[in-house]
Write a structure and sequence with these properties.
32% of the residues lie in helices and 24% in strands. The protein is α/β, with parallel strands linked by helices. This is Putative triacylglycerol lipase protein.
């Protein structure tokens, strides 16, 4: 992550297709990140290109981006996705997350192929995880959520150097 003049880390949050449910669900995460970093949100292709090319940070390209929706997999953003892939190949890091149900199967496959990866989407699984306080003690366990729901999409054919 790039540091600003005050030494705070900068995270670029890419949100081209804002979804109110997603924003509401992840609001606590964004609030927590803002306590420790400068969390910048870009909502247009122009803002994204400027941020990953260094135009907005005095020529220093951003080394880290959090892509929070599936919009980049849509056909009308295919050239923009190519720019993001170039940014990654030039040393940047992008982490993709979002609402899995909104990501079309063909969009996922095409996005991975355009990135030059042989990954395949595995299965999607929903599970509730509950805390086992015997391993951490009651005092620590009391400060943590007792359970949480996770919905990961598993990947296949990911090589060790690609993870």
């Amino acid at each position: 992550m790039a540091d600003n003049a005050l030494g705070q880390r900068r995270i670029l949050r890419v949100a081209l297709g804002l979804e109110p449910v997603f924003e509401e669900h992840y609001g606590p995460l964004w609030a927590e990140l803002r306590k420790h970093t400068i969390l910048e949100r870009v909502e247009t292709p122009e803002e994204l290109v400027a941020a990953i090319s260094g135009e907005e940070d005095h020529g220093a390209p951003l080394p880290w981006a959090l892509i929070t929706d599936a919009a980049l997999t849509e056909k009308h953003y295919s050239q923009l996705w190519k720019r993001v892939v170039e940014y990654i190949r030039d040393g940047g890091t992008a982490i993709c997350m979002g609402v899995v149900q909104h990501l079309r199967e063909t969009g996922r496959r095409e996005a991975v192929q355009k990135a030059g990866l042989s990954w395949e989407m595995g299965w999607y699984h929903q599970a509730t995880t509950e805390i086992d306080s015997s391993g951490i003690g009651a005092v620590v366990a009391a400060t943590l959520p007792q359970s949480y729901n996770q919905k990961p999409m598993y990947l296949k054919e990911v090589l060790p150097g690609e993870a």
